[in-house]
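call fold(seq) -> tokens
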Amino acid sequence: MSQLSLREADKLEVTVLVDNYADLLLMDSTETVQRVQAAFPDTLLAEHGLSCLVKVFVGSEEHWVLMDAGISESCLLNNADVMEVDLTRIESLVLSHGHFDHFGGLMAFLGRAKKGIPVIVHPDAFLEFRLNLPFLDQPLDLPRLDETAITQTGAVVHKIGEASTLASDLVLVTGNVERTTDFETGFPWMEAMIEGKWIVDPFRHDQGIAVMVKNRGLVVVGGCSHAGIINMSERPLRR
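ret:
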């Protein structure tokens, strides 16, 4: 197994483009956390989904990576416009896992992104998924990630299961996350179609990204972290 080389970044910025919460009156900022101050009627939208713009800096280098694309076109593009984020500057996109609240705005993003942008995704993210909640009469089929539709936009899909790096080796994509804890048990109501059978999703497709920041150490950004944020943080830098 070969060791990955992860370069140290001078600075890391994470801009949350989509999450579950928005508050127009929350305007207090700190040196670490900067709140968006939008002028009415422009306003940020919230939804059950996630999208984070990760910027890494070292010397004169600057790299932009998008992790996830929220659940809807309207939320992602609106918030990018309100925050004046130039989506054409994003170099690559990483999907944390294959659930629709993380890829729902993907096609809208790719419509604005530069042609040929890499889309890094675990192969299992293309599986069929369903939600089997105990109070439902029957399982609920979930929207499925469409590889053909992605490639038709001109984007290049990279299906990678092992650890890899982006942004000139400044960003690690964890790939498969080993389960080392006994208390991170995933999401037992989520099922995946694997080898012709519906089983409890083992979440092999759940991954995160990490950046080694100068004087700060390893900073890990997860999506839902179904594989466990502790497991993800302890993921060795090995292929």
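Helices lie at 73-82, 100-103, 106-112, 147-152, 229-233.
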